[in-house]
């Protein structure tokens, strides 16, 4: 039985922690699109500098699979809470140090080397963040509302993106000299406040009842990863391919911003506002999609969102190419704020419900982070596809839509476990994932 008040407390802790964590993670992406190509790489080839800056954004995703193995083991072996406290500390410290880095003009090649090292630490932190927060929320949630409560983690991620983009609005409006010398550093230094706030919140969070029962019954796997790949390897692969839907986010927040400002000649400030408004809309859309998924299942909502993104990416990049600000705002908000939110609302529950508690954090972390690693490099792949010709946006749209279809296939092959009691999740002997529940969401006797 779920204790009264615990689900909301866990969901709020996941929301706040994810918002603070992803503020740090995404200010890097914004800075990479607007500034880093000019200050951390040689100025002799601006196009190459932009490409390299976007590649450093993707480097953070390289560390994610490695961090997933390490932090997944810690979370399944020693508890979800330890992972959540560690990740927010590591993210905050590494982000603050990015703001202290010297530029290429000051120290030469050492500047991008240090930048890459700190980006790797950010990626290591992010590897355990969402899987830990999702596991915590799912295991505290009422059985008939697991999608709703786990969706708070992704709502927090959207809030972090809002903060990350909004903080750059006044910074981007600064004169170029001030922006490139000290203005870009301010959002990174602000992460010191992030560390303190998130640490206090997560230190007060209770461990999940599921994990505490495992400890009491000595049912923990000594090497969760070994159990995971022995018994649940197919679900890990399914999550990997489903998680490439995150390419929609990286294309929207990083590549499209860089393309709009550096190639299509659109102003920085309006393009930043597109991201802010889309994420504000997402804050309202995500819980609504999640509540629908608790009623009709995860797969219909997830697949509908993926197919919608595959179509709308053509309209969004086309609007940027045409320089039509009205269409950019309308399509951008519709695609990222409404349609993409359907996938974000559902995947925390859909992935988590594939695995039993003893390997849940490892399964979610490893599967998602490998998929996210692929998505993390899509801005640099898209930049290579487009080259220096703005008309090549069609190729980028086809590439992104193709990744959306990969997600659809992966989700279609999975089992929808939304009617399975939490204690039975991950069992392979269930009939199509359908176990009777009471109207309150608990299993019948």
From TrEMBL:
<protein>
    <submittedName>
        <fullName>MHS family MFS transporter</fullName>
    </submittedName>
</protein>
<feature type="transmembrane region" description="Helical">
    <location>
        <begin position="184"/>
        <end position="201"/>
    </location>
</feature>
<dbReference type="InterPro" id="IPR020846">
    <property type="entry name" value="MFS_dom"/>
</dbReference>
<feature type="transmembrane region" description="Helical">
    <location>
        <begin position="300"/>
        <end position="319"/>
    </location>
</feature>
<keyword id="KW-1133">Transmembrane helix</keyword>
<feature type="transmembrane region" description="Helical">
    <location>
        <begin position="83"/>
        <end position="104"/>
    </location>
</feature>
<keyword id="KW-0813">Transport</keyword>
<feature type="transmembrane region" description="Helical">
    <location>
        <begin position="239"/>
        <end position="260"/>
    </location>
</feature>
<dbReference type="InterPro" id="IPR011701">
    <property type="entry name" value="MFS"/>
</dbReference>
<feature type="domain" description="Major facilitator superfamily (MFS) profile">
    <location>
        <begin position="10"/>
        <end position="419"/>
    </location>
</feature>
<feature type="transmembrane region" description="Helical">
    <location>
        <begin position="272"/>
        <end position="293"/>
    </location>
</feature>
<feature type="transmembrane region" description="Helical">
    <location>
        <begin position="393"/>
        <end position="412"/>
    </location>
</feature>
<feature type="transmembrane region" description="Helical">
    <location>
        <begin position="363"/>
        <end position="387"/>
    </location>
</feature>
<dbReference type="Pfam" id="PF07690">
    <property type="entry name" value="MFS_1"/>
</dbReference>
<feature type="transmembrane region" description="Helical">
    <location>
        <begin position="21"/>
        <end position="41"/>
    </location>
</feature>
<feature type="transmembrane region" description="Helical">
    <location>
        <begin position="325"/>
        <end position="351"/>
    </location>
</feature>
<keyword id="KW-0812">Transmembrane</keyword>
<dbReference type="InterPro" id="IPR005828">
    <property type="entry name" value="MFS_sugar_transport-like"/>
</dbReference>
<keyword id="KW-1003">Cell membrane</keyword>
<keyword id="KW-0472">Membrane</keyword>
<dbReference type="InterPro" id="IPR036259">
    <property type="entry name" value="MFS_trans_sf"/>
</dbReference>
<feature type="transmembrane region" description="Helical">
    <location>
        <begin position="47"/>
        <end position="71"/>
    </location>
</feature>
<dbReference type="Pfam" id="PF00083">
    <property type="entry name" value="Sugar_tr"/>
</dbReference>
